[in-house]
């Protein structure tokens, strides 16, 4: 497909920007990249390449139709809220159909199968989206499936889970967690189900060039079976000195969920009250009324003792606006790091031992992962040093 024009949506994102980079330099294709924010970090990196960069939204039907009108292929990486992810997919598909593009690739997510999978997951495994993000991705896939049934276009769908590499949040976030002190559910025995971004880009390029990919769904995962514990340990070696990684069982984590909810949902409004009522009289009156509110009393009684004290400090006129102790901290910030819990879906993945299969991708397109996990970690070490993350 050298010399052809490829329209890439979501080119300001991690996967989309790397794909645009590769298509422009490695495949000698003309790339038209749609970005949501032209001043974003990934967009700025694309600015030095021979790429046509357009700022806009996948929801703008006329604009998208105009941008796709003379393209030969489309790779749809854009996602966001429900409207962007679902309606945006429909908009891009309709524009591609109208333009008569030869190939259409839709980047979805293996999260549509859920985050607590057991055994081996294949493309025909049941969909069980268990987060808002996963549900949006699943609904977008339904849009793609209906297009495949109605239109002459036969889109290809990729479902990666953890896409890592330079600039990935699956690198920068764990590194920051390791710096602060982090927790792994059940010791991180779950399968990471990772794919290096360049390996995913390889698969997309193959799909653009091979008609055998038309209308197919592919799970995208590397050969290396890596646990979350092994991944954090490898990043920790690159990072150097950091607080020890803690492990909590699922039972311990469930017991902590109420505290997380109260910390995130109840105390911040209480802090807002403290800021709003700068007058002592107002604060005193507000505190008296809050104390007599049934829902507030029930919540207050369910708080751990240290959070009860903190809540009183935040809103009482005598409290002085004290701050909430950090989660996992014993109050001695000099000796005890601020341990942070990963999000719930990540915690589920950390204890789920199910693995994704890449057999269909290999058999249909002849794909083989180019970057192994050890090589990827070496590359990440160089990048992290360059970015002064270590």
State the strand order across the main sheet: 3-2-1-4-5-7-11
Question: Any idea how many domains?
Answer: 2
Q: How would you characterize the largest beta sheet?
A: 7 strands, parallel
The portion of residues forming beta strands comes to 5-15%
How does the overall form come out from the CA principal axes?
Answer: globular
Number of strands: 13
**Separation, N- and C-terminal Cα atoms:** 40 Å
Helicity level, as a percent range? 40-55%
User: What are the segments in which pLDDT stays under 50 over at least 5 consecutive residues?
Assistant: 315-336
Question: Structural class from helices and strands?
Answer: alpha/beta
Summarize this entry quickly.
The protein has 390 residues and is an alpha/beta fold. It has 16 helices and 13 strands. It folds into 2 domains: 5-164 and 194-224 and 353-372, Rossmann fold; 248-338, no CATH class.
Protein topology:
Layout: E1 5-9, H1 14-25, E2 30-35, H2 41-46, E3 52-55, H3 61-68, E4 73-76, H4 82-99, E5 103-107, E6 120-121, H5 132-150, E7 156-160, E8 162-164, H6 169-180, E9 183-185, E10 194-196, H7 197-209, E11 217-220, H8 228-239, E12 246-248, H9 250-265, H10 267-276, H11 280-291, H12 294-302, H13 305-315, H14 344-351, E13 355-356, H15 359-365, H16 373-386
Parallel strand pairs: 1-2, 1-4, 2-3, 4-5, 5-7, 6-13, 7-11, 8-10, 9-12
Helix pairs in contact: 1-7, 3-4, 4-5, 6-8, 8-16
């Amino acid at each position: 497909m050298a010399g052809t024009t490829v329209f890439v949506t979501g080119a300001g994102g991690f996967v989309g920007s790397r794909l645009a980079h590769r298509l422009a330099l490695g495949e000698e294709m003309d790339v038209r990249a749609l970005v949501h924010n032209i001043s974003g970090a990934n967009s700025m990196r694309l600015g030095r390449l021979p790429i046509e960069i357009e700022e806009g939204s996948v929801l703008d039907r006329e604009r998208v139709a105009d941008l796709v009108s003379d393209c030969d292929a489309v790779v749809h990486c854009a996602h966001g809220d429900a409207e962007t992810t679902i309606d945006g997919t429909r908009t891009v598909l309709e524009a591609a159909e109208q333009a008569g593009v030869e190939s259409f690739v839709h980047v979805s997510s293996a999260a549509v199968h859920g985050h607590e999978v057991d055994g081996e997951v294949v493309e025909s495994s049941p969909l069980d989206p268990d987060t808002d993000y996963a549900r949006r991705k699943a609904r977008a896939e339904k849009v793609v499936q209906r297009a495949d049934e109605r239109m002459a276009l036969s889109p290809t769908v990729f479902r990666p889970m953890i896409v890592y590499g330079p600039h990935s949040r699956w690198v920068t976030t764990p590194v920051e967690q390791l710096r602060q002190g982090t927790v792994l559910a059940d010791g991180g025995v779950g399968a990471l189900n990772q794919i290096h971004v360049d390996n995913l880009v390889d698969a997309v390029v193959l799909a653009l060039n091979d008609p055998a990919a038309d209308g197919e769904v592919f799970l995208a995962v590397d050969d290396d079976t890596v646990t979350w514990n092994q991944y954090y340990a490898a990043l920790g070696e690159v990072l150097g000195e950091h607080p020890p990684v803690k492990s909590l069982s699922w039972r311990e984590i469930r017991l902590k969920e109420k505290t997380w909810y109260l910390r995130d949902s109840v105390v911040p409004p209480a802090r807002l009250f403290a800021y709003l009522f700068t007058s002592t009289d107002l604060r005193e009156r507000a505190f008296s009324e809050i104390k007599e509110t049934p829902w507030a009393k029930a919540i207050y009684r369910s708080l751990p003792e240290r959070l009860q004290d903190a809540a009183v400090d935040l809103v009482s006129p005598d409290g002085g606006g004290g701050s909430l102790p950090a989660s996992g901290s014993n109050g001695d910030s000099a000796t005890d790091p601020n341990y942070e819990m990963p999000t719930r879906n990540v915690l589920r993945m950390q204890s789920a031992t199910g693995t994704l299969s890449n057999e269909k991708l290999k058999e249909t397109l002849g794909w083989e992962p180019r970057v192994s996990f050890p090589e990827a970690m070496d590359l990440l070490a160089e990048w992290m040093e360059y970015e002064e993350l270590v």
